[in-house]
Amino acid sequence: MSEQPYNVLFLCTANSARSIIAEAVLNRMGNGRFCAYSAGSRPRGEVNPHARRLLESLNYDTSGLRSKSWNEFARPGAPVFDFVFTVCDNAAGETCPIWPGHPITAHWGIPDPAQARGSDAEIANAFYDAYRELARRIEVFAALPLASLDRMSLQDRLREIGRLDGATASAKAQD
Q1: In the predicted model, is pLDDT for residue 19 greater than 60?
Q2: Which of these, 95, 108, 114, lies nearest to 15 by C-alpha position?
Q3: What single DSSP character describes residue 83?
Q4: Angle between helix 49-57 and 120-143 (nearest 10)
Q5: What domain range is 165 assigned to?
Q6: d(C-alpha 61, C-alpha 103), whole Å
Q7: pLDDT at position 52 over 70
Q8: Cβ atoms < 10 Å from Cβ of 97
Q9: Of 128, 134, 158, whose CA–CA distance to 144 is shortest?
Q10: Is residue 1 in some structural domain?
Q11: How many domains, in total, are found in the chain?
């Protein structure tokens, strides 16, 4: 693994909720050890207002968050990633660009809060549940002794994190 900070990319199809939340959480929780980014295969073009509202209510700075294509990170001059995590099942099944540096990848699928229906409170709860699940995974990830683990052990640990309670069936079934 490279010297810190580690560059981490979170992928989701629309890049409007889960991957955006993960980017914000790791950038805060990582305490400078990580530089987190997010992108999507078919970005919506805007951050989901429920995701933005949740992050702001938890005192995250959302001013730099935006929905963007993963192609932005496949261009020359883009950050070289140490880790790439898919957080939605659709993105996990898509053919991703070839990332320079051969990052370690894992699928951390969680249910899409943007698909939640019901009252404002029910929708807000779905977004909070997604936040909580992502924050738990990121907390475990950030606590790993990254520099002392070999690539295969680290890959296994990252897959285990993706299978934590709250994971989608696809994430639980990953090899």
Answers
A1: yes
A2: 114
A3: E
A4: 60
A5: 6-170
A6: 27
A7: yes
A8: 16
A9: 158
A10: no
A11: 1
**Token digits for 71?**
């192609």
CA distance 87 to 109: 4
Averaged pLDDT for residues 137-165 = 93
What is the signed CA dihedral for 66, 162, 71, 41, rounded to 10 degrees?
-80
Indicate which CATH number applies to the domain containing 157: 3.40.50.2300
Residue type, 17: A
Answer whether residue 118 is part of any domain: yes
The reply to whether 59 falls in a domain is: yes
Q: Looking at residues 94-109, what average pLDDT do you find?
A: 81
Is 175 within the bounds of a domain? Answer: no
Mean pLDDT of the chain: 90
- Contact in structure between 106 and 167 (CB atoms under 8 Å): no
CB atoms near residue 1 (< 10 Å):
14
Determine the straight-line distance between the first and last CA of the chain, rounded to whole angstroms. Answer: 22
Q: Which residue has the tokens 């029910």?
A: 122
8 Å CB contact between 127 and 51 = yes
CB 22 within 8 A of CB 84: no
Question: 39 near 65, Cβ under 8 Å?
Answer: no
Rounded CA separation 81/102 (Å): 8
CB count, 10 Å around CB of 143? 9
Give the closest residue to 162 by CA, choosing from 47, 40, 18.
18
The pLDDT assigned to 34 comes to: 97
